[in-house]
Write a structure and sequence with these properties.
With 161 residues, the protein is of the alpha+beta class. It is built from four helices and seven strands. The chain has a seven-stranded antiparallel sheet, sandwiched between helices. Strand 4 and strand 5 form a beta hairpin. Helix 2 packs antiparallel against helix 4. It is globular. It starts with a helix and ends with a helix.
Length: 161
């Protein structure tokens, strides 16, 4: 009964009439990254001061039998009013995250990109291309999480910008 209630609660988030532009994360992408079936648990679009921001999140349908964790993929697509505004946001986040260590700069994705992980709880990739930023984060890494799928997906999405 608890699962049914949860499904009924989030079903309005997933509409078959929704069209998904190529720069958005799809349920199939999220399932490949998490290594299991997923449900859309968040979807929003907001116009902020200097950027249009789209956010979505997918949650694995079951907890991982090895770790007991339930994986999530969080996706942000941000389109800024200028390249300079996107660069400033990217640089500020990169600088903040460098304090936490484990940053790997990625040279083959967008104009600038980085990967960060603590190897236990999260994997994060952030890409800036022109006036756009994509952030994708896996939170609660499980035994089925695929970093390769995460990197492949973000490279494919970034290539469409």
């Amino acid at each position: 009964m608890k699962k049914l209630f949860f499904l009924l609660l989030i079903l309005p988030l997933a509409s078959s009439a929704d069209t998904i532009p190529s720069y958005y994360l799809t349920p199939a992408d999220a399932a490949k990254i998490l290594g299991q079936s997923v449900l859309l648990t968040q979807k929003s679009a907001d116009q902020e001061r200097n950027a249009m921001k789209y956010r979505s999140a997918f949650t694995a349908v079951e907890s991982d039998p090895v770790s007991g964790n339930t994986g999530n993929v969080f996706y942000n697509y941000e389109e800024y009013s200028s390249v300079a505004a996107a660069q400033k946001t990217y640089t500020n986040i990169l600088d903040d995250n460098r304090r936490n260590g484990n940053i790997q700069l990625l040279s083959n994705t967008g104009d600038e990109a980085f990967y960060q992980s603590d190897a236990k709880n999260f994997d994060l990739i952030m890409v800036r291309k022109k006036d756009k930023i994509i952030r994708m984060k896996v939170n609660k890494v499980t035994s089925t999480t695929s970093v390769a799928a995460l990197k492949e997906t973000i490279q494919r999405i970034a290539a469409t910008l």
